[in-house]
């Protein structure tokens, strides 16, 4: 099985670092790359093939940068993961898919369950914000394989403690969600 990992926003933060916590000099692009890289190592250790690309070009918006959707479709990937960090003062994780009833919805539920199960013991106020359909997200709409966009927590709330101290747990939980989904496919 081939897993394409897209850590959110631009490599090195230029031109788009994503969400920022200026007080702690944290950027979404850096956290997402850390989680994505670690997740990739865990998935490879589980025997899956992984390709990772962090690029701010989603679907041709930034010529000269590789388009993550085209790269995933052309590889071709079996699963697409876009890893992000949220902002806006909330708490918890949420995972988006194109259609709740499809394979992407099943993948999203597996990942969301693992994130919440893993991180809640460290912080009981970490919320399960659920799995949500968002067919307008480019990475969900234009990929040809089951795809999810994962918001691991909020960079501008108390979640920042989990985001900075439990990055390895975040990466492992995403990888476990993928393997849970893959095991379901084998059994089905």
List unreliable stretches of 5+ residues. none
CATH structural class? Alpha Beta
The coarse overall form would be globular
Please state the oligomeric state of the protein chains shown: single chain
Number of domains: 1
Q: Kindly identify the CATH topology.
A: Aminopeptidase
Strand order of the largest sheet: 4-1-5-8-6-7
Q: In total, how many beta strands?
A: 8
Helix and strand content put the structural class at: alpha/beta
Helix content: 25-40%
Main beta sheet: strand number and arrangement? 6 strands, mixed
Order of helices and strands: EEEHEHEEHEHEHH
How far apart the termini lie comes to 16 Å
Overview of this structure, please?
The chain is an alpha/beta fold and 188 residues long. The chain has one domain (2-187): Aminopeptidase. It contains six helices and eight strands; from the N terminus they run E-E-E-H-E-H-E-E-H-E-H-E-H-H. The protein has helices at 28-45, 68-74, 103-119, 138-141, 159-165, 167-187; strands at residues 2-7, 20-21, 26-27, 49-52, 79-86, 93-97, 128-133, 147-154. The protein has a six-stranded mixed sheet. A two-stranded antiparallel ribbon has the order 2-3. Strand 6, helix 3 and strand 7 form a beta-alpha-beta unit. The two termini are 16 Å apart. One of its GO terms (cellular component) is outer membrane-bounded periplasmic space. GO terms for molecular function: N-acetylmuramoyl-L-alanine amidase activity. One of its GO terms (biological process) is peptidoglycan catabolic process. This is N-acetylmuramoyl-L-alanine amidase. Pfam families: Amidase_3.
